Structures are given as C-alpha cells and as structure tokens.
Amino acid sequence: MDSGKASDRIRWLQSELSRHARLYYEKDQPEIEDADYDALFRELQDLEARFPEFSTPDSPTRRVGSAPARQFAQVVHNVPMLSLQNAMDDSEFLAFDERVRKALGLQSVDYVVEPKIDGLSCEIVYRDGVLVQASTRGDGQVGEDITANVRTIKDVPQRLKALSFNAEPGLFDEVSPPLPELFEARGEIYMPTEPFRQMNQERLDAGMSAFANPRNAAAGSVRQLDPAVTASRPLRFFAYTVGRLDDREILSQRDLLRRLREHGFQVSSLIRPARGAAEVLDAFKRLGSERDSLPFEIDGAVVKVDSFELQRELGEISRSPRWAIALKFPPRREKTVVNRIVVQVGRTGVLTPVAELEPVKVGGVMVRRATLHNIQEIRRKDIRIGDVVEVQRAGDVIPEVVRPVISERDGNETIFNMPDRCPSCLEPVAGRQDEIAWRCTNISCPAQFREHVIHFASKRAMDIEGLGERMADLMIEAGLIHEISDIYALTVTQISALDRMGDKSAAKLVAAIEASKRRPLAALINALGISLVGETTARDLASNFGSLAALAAASTEDLRQVQDVGPIVATSIFDFFQSRRNLDLIERLRQAGLTMMNESAAGGGPFEGKSFVFTGSLQKMTRDKASDLVISLGGKVSGSVSRGTSFVVAGSDAGSKLAKARELGVAVISELDFLAMAGADA
Ligand code: IVH
Predict the structure, then answer these.
(1) Which of 41, 62, 83 is the last residue of a domain?
(2) Are residues 277 and 148 in the same domain?
C-alpha cells in the first residue's frame, strides 16, 4: 500500500471506529458485530504501526471506549480504567505469553484465568467502608456518575464487610485494617441470560424495541436518569479488580480476588489459577465447554499475570496493560441458506421481514428462522433470497443473519421487496421501500387480531389457560371471535366443535375464561395491549388509578405522575383511551362482567385512601411485593413524594425521597413499622 492510500484508509478507519465506539458506548445501539469492530481496529493498529506519520493523538487506538455522555456528572478515575488487548486464537495467546516471559526473563509464568463477562465495567468507591460513588469507564480517564443507579444492584454491597483478624500479627507483618479508608472496587455489571430474555419479551409485548444482547441491556439499564428504572432491571455485578491499592498484604490477583470476596463482593467461581501457557489454554478450553450452561454470557477469558510485582515490571502501553490479555471465543456462527423471506404482522400492525432458513445448529441450538428487523437492514447487509448466509445467535440468544457469503452467489438469488399488501388481510400497507417501519393500518387485520388474542389470554395478562396460538387460530378460522370481547361469549358447544377439542377440554377452557373476569386490574391493563405499556407499567398504573375508569379519564399530566411514565408513554396511554373503538371494547368487557378495579378499592381495606412511597432497599421483601401488599389492602403506591403522600417507607440507604419527605413533613416509617401496619409477619 502506498502512503497516499494508507493515509486515506487510516483516516476512514479512525472516523468509522469513533462512530462505532459512540454507538456502542454512548447509545448502547451498536451497528456492527464485536468481531467486525475488532477486525477494523486491528487493521488500523497495523496501518498506524507501518505509517506512524498518519497516526494522530486522538486515534481510537489510543483511546479507551468513548467520552462520557453529557447528561451524567463526570467522575475522574484516580487510576485510569484500562482496556485489554485481544487474542483471537491460541497462537495469539502463545505469542503474548512469549512476550511476557521474554520481558520478565522467566521460563514459565503463573497466570489467573477469569471468565470475560459480557457487560459493562464499573468502578465503585468506598470511603471508610461506605459506598460513596460509582462510575462507568467512560474514556478510561473520565467516566459517568451512576451512583444512584448502582446502589439498586443487589450484588453491590452498600457497606463493605469488615475483615476479621485470623492470626496474631508477627512483629514485622503488615496488617490490613478491618475497613480501608479508600477502596475502589472494579468489575462488570451484567444481565443474566434468562432475565434478559424475559425482559426483552416484556418489551416486545409492550411494543417497545428489544435490546440486541445482554450487554446492551445492562448498559442501557445502568445509564438511566431515573434509578427506579435501573432498580426494575435484573442487573448483577462481579468484582474482579480495584483502582488504587494501598494494602501491602495483597501481593497478587488471587489475593485481591480473595479480599474482594471477604469484603462482600460476588467474585466468579469460574476463576482458575494456571501455571504456564499450557494450563491457561486448558482452562480456556474448559471455560468454553461450560459456556453454554452458564446463566450469563461470556465472550472469552481474561488472562492476567498473577503476581503484582511482575505486573508492575511489565507495565502498560497507552491503552492496555502488558500483563493481561482477553482470549476471545470464536463467534458462534454457521452458514446456511435463506430459503424464503416472509413478512410477519405484529400486534400493532408492524411488518417484520423474517428469513426462513435451511435449519442449522448454531452453538447447540437449531435455528430455522431469523428476524431481518426491517427492509433497511436487509438492504444494508444486502441479503437476498437464495443467499448462503452466516447466521449467529446475537448476544448468543436471538438468531441473526450476519451477512451474505457473496462468493457463493450463482446469480439465482433474488432481491426482496416489501409487499404492497399486508400478507394477512391483503389491504394496502403504509411504508416506502427506503423506510424502516412498515405497517398494516387495517385495524381489523386478522394477523393483528390473532396477536391481540394471544397476548390478551397470555399468562401475565388475563391468564386464560388453553387459549394459546393454536386455539386462537382455530377460533378465528371458525369465525367464533371477531373481536376480543367475543371471547367472553364463547360456549362449550362452540368450542367442542373445533378440531381435536373434546367436551371436557372445552368446558375447562370456558371455566378459565370465566375465571379471568376476576383478574387484577394490572393484568387487565397489560392485556389491553396499550403501546409502550408492559407488565411493570401496568402494575404502576393500576395502583395509582385504582380503576380502569379513572385511568381512562386521566390527563397526560396525571399519567406523568406515575413512576416510569414519561411524556411519550403518557401520550400513548392517553391516545389509547381517546379511540372510540377501544372505549367500545372496554364497555363490552365491562358488560361481560370483568372486574375493572382493584379488588380492594372495590371493597375498601385498611389502607384505603393512604398512599405510600418506598425508598432505599428493603430487607424483608422486594418492592414489588411491598407494593402488591399495599394495593391488596386498598392503598396506593406512588413513585414520588408529594404533600399528598401518607407514608414514606424508608429502607436502608434511602436517598432524595427521604429528604423530600422530611422537607414536606410527610410521615417517615421504617420497613418494620410498615410490616406491622400491614399486619404482615416480619
Ligand atoms: S480486567 C486492566 N477482568 O473486558 C484490566 N476485565 O476488554 C482491565 N471484562 O473493560 C479489565 N471480564 O469491561 C477484566 N475478568 C475480567 C473481565 C473484564 C470482563 C471486561 C471489562 C473490560 C473489558 C476489556
């Protein structure tokens, strides 16, 4: 490559990598795969090494992550938070080991092999054992203040456990104080796979976009302006290092991990010591074989020189230590063929193109279909019908078509266009070939109706057992139901006439439909399928408004008083109740005999007319449980303190809400007081 070409390419790589780093770190919405980013990064590193005259001080190769976002206060890290070099295969690790041994003049080095958890790194500062600050990595020097959010993560101790002395100190021994003056724990905030799946399902049910992978979900959850949102997300924390370390008793990574555990942190049980490179590769292999059965995502191993003295000797280069390396797993990708591209109609009418694939096993899971997201994605990746494509489980959970294998094209592939008509109702659709969102706007489109029925009857909504996908299809095909309220007019005779339905199962289904009339208000609100309203918001709305009539009459300002309800969600709820069609449906449901208010609001209760605000962390029960208890006794739960608040229940480490309560003279009670009032056992 001549120097003109190199200069152009370097400039292009620098700007592309900066853009992708911003998408990844600031917006939590990456456009390219990690492996692709790594490949571009390496190309830039190589080119800059060969043409140092074109390398600039602000090149992504000299920065870590991305600059902090503006809406969070900035935190300067005492000790910079570094990044890691990557090894893509065994041979790259062996080269690292050789460099290390050479620099140290040793035959073999003791390492520690840790799982590389796919989350976001965080520093948590303790003064005299008390949590005072938490921050993201940011650009490595300056991160974002996320203290209030991190406090809501259950794995993060609010106070360090004091060390106990277990031996008589000798005359010259260093003895660590039970609680250090300053302790800067560092580790990874992550979201385990199963809760991630559940949360995404809830978001999709509520018409929201799903997070691409657990890492994005964790990052998006932690970088929230309202800690209550973070608190509702299933986040966890593993500690693996510290910032500044004054303790002279700690001489190695293994000592440090032990100390982190003693202070009350979660430290991964998958961490293993390894003497020399061969043992490292063994441990790495073992980790790979455990990968599929772990409850969280790991994308490789982090291998660290164990001894701190040797670490100091090795030092660091501008962005990463010389004593550690990330040993990455190869991505779980397989090749297969796109047989067809079909279009699915969602509950809200959104049309989603889906690839029907020649079935292929990816990382142990059979993949037959993969979402193509939208037409723009298809164009960007240039995926054609008949293409051989690489398929991957994104975040290793949801199947995704990564790219077509262009070299395998034979000219018989066809370009896909969105249909002009809805595949279900054949009505014309709204959308242009260059637009992301395509919709079927026909409100009586059977495909939308089908999704509605399935959602309405689902476990977390009206919980009508026996009314799933197959039954919904049968009922719609037979013309038994044309709108949701028809469900409540179904008879045993009608249902037993359906394919493969006996009298007994028909009777059971009718009984389940009958029982669903008494589902709590929160379930009904969820079942209505209001855009952007999921299970959690539905519960908050139910407890704040007490009845569907009150909710329907609420203004956007009223709605915004509810925890987690911002302007967009408020408008969505408001609009829902402006629609004649929706109000008619609600009226018919009422006539069918559905309970449309909180049971207790109907029957009164000891907490009637009382409103509660919870703050800080509760010891005896979760906030959700406590809220349910209040509602079951006729009270209301609110997210913010006002003069109308009856009681603020302060758990440990209560923050601004407690201050607000004191300021307004609102009664503050402890968790135990609350339990006594509620007549619940502590
Ligand atoms: S140590 C100087 N240990 O990987 C060493 N990092 O690519 C700094 N990560 O920013 C990090 N698991 O977000 C370390 N056991 C582990 C890790 C780990 C995951 C992440 C972390 C870091 C990134 C570097």
Answers:
(1) 62
(2) yes
Strand arrangement, sheet containing 636-638: 636-638, 611-615, 647-650, 667-670
pTM, rounded to two decimals: 0.59
* 116 is annotated as an active-site residue: yes
Is 116 touching ligand 1 by the criterion CB < 6 Å?
yes
Do β-strands 85-87 and 398-404 pair in parallel, antiparallel, or remain unpaired?
Answer: unpaired
Active site residue: 27, 116, 625, 636, which one? Answer: 116
**With helix as H, strand as E and coil as C, how does 125-190 read?**
EEECCEEEEEEECCCCCEEEECHHHHCCCCCCCCECCCCCCCCCCCCCCCCCCCCCCEEEEEEEEE
Which residue bears the tokens 């007549």? 679
How confident is the model over 506-532, as pLDDT tens digits? 999 999 999 999 899 999 999 998 888
Pocket test for ligand 1, best of 88, 96, 118, 188 (most atoms within 8 A of CB): 188
- Percent above pLDDT 70 for the chain: 93
Of 533, 520, 536, nearest to 574 (Cα)?
533
Is residue 420 assigned to a domain? no
> What 3-state class would DSSP assign to 537?
helix
Ligand 1 centroid to residue 346 C-alpha, Å: 39
The whole-angstrom separation of Cα 353 and Cα 423 is 11
- Nearest CA to 395 among 330, 331, 302? 331
CA of 302 to the centre of ligand 1 (A): 7
Is the distance from CB of 416 to CB of 351 less than 8 angstroms?
no
Alpha carbon separation from 178 to 166, 262, 314, 370 (Å, rounded):
11, 10, 31, 54
**Contact of 338 with 386, CB cutoff 8 Å:** yes
Does 105 score more than 50 pLDDT? yes
Same domain, 533 and 626: no
CATH of the domain at 19: 1.10.287.610
**What is the 8-class DSSP label of residue 430?**
B
Structure token digits, residue 506: 């028909």
Closest CA to 391 of 414, 407, 421, 370: 370
Compute the distance from residue 116 Cα to the ligand 1 centre, in Å.
7
Q: What are the tokens at 230?
A: 């973070």
**353 assigned to some structural domain:** yes
204, 94: one domain: yes
Give the CA angle between residues 296, 300, 303 to the nearest 5°: 120
123 lines ligand 1 (CB under 6 A): no
Q: Is 83 near ligand 1, meaning CB less than 6 Å away? A: yes
Same domain, 165 and 305: yes
- Say if residues 653 and 132 touch (Cβ distance below 8 Å): no
Q: What are 414's strand-pairing partners?
A: 385
Give the domain range for residue 589.
441-598
Looking at residue 169, its pLDDT comes to: 56
Q: Tell me: do 293 and 145 sit in the same domain.
A: yes
Q: Give how many domains the chain has, as a whole number.
A: 5
Produce one character per residue of 364-392: b if its CB has 16 or more CB atoms within 10 Å, e if not: eeebeebbbbbbebbeebebbbebbbbbb
Per mean pLDDT, which range of 61-70, 123-132, 217-226, 233-242 is the poorest?
61-70
- Residues 6 or more apart in contact with residue 543 via CB below 8 angstroms: 522, 598, 627, 630, 631, 636, 637
**What is the residue whose two structure tokens read 């809830």?**
202
Let me know: does 552 contact 541? Beta carbons within 8 Å.
no
Return the best residue to mutate from 41, 63, 84 for the ligand 1 pocket (most ligand atoms within 8 A of CB): 84
> What is the tens place of the pLDDT at every residue in 143-166?
999 999 999 999 999 999 999 865
